[in-house]
Design a protein that fits this description.
alpha+beta; 3 helices; 26% helix
Length: 136
């Protein structure tokens, strides 16, 4: 399937954020200490994904807001760019090739991130991630 990225017809309301590198560390600092149940999180390498209500998401330079893709709710996309083809078709193709939902598709650098293992944010998780990043 060939497609490219374009601006969505109507930007969805953000329900999460993704950041990498220094921006991921700033995002982690911004959410650390949040009220229990406010955020769900996942991380790999130097990428941090934070899911939560729009009005609770912080602003972090170089972070990207994300949201479920409407009718293809198992597919998460940046709020500012979407595929120029049906998101249902993109979701179906990704599931066939890469496995279960939910999945986050990012344009640059091109990445597909499983959101199947997001966990509630807590102090222990933050400490483990900080230790992993410090040792990297």
């Amino acid at each position: 399937m060939k497609w490219s990225w374009c601006a969505p017809v109507e930007a969805p309301v953000a329900q999460g954020m993704v950041a990498s590198g220094a921006a991921a560390r700033v995002l982690l600092q911004a959410i650390t200490g949040a009220e229990s149940g406010t955020f769900r999180v996942a991380a790999h390498a130097d990428l941090l994904v934070v899911l939560g209500a729009f009005d609770r998401l912080p602003w972090v330079a170089d972070a990207t807001y994300i949201a479920p893709a409407g009718d293809a709710a198992g597919l998460w996309l940046p709020t500012n760019v979407w595929p120029d083809v049906s998101v249902d078709l993109v979701q179906a193709a990704l599931v066939r090739r890469h496995g279960p939902l939910p999945l986050l598709l990012l344009p640059s650098p091109a990445q597909l991130v499983s959101l199947a293992r997001v966990v509630p944010l807590d102090g222990g998780w933050v400490a483990r991630l900080q230790a992993r990043w410090a040792g990297a």
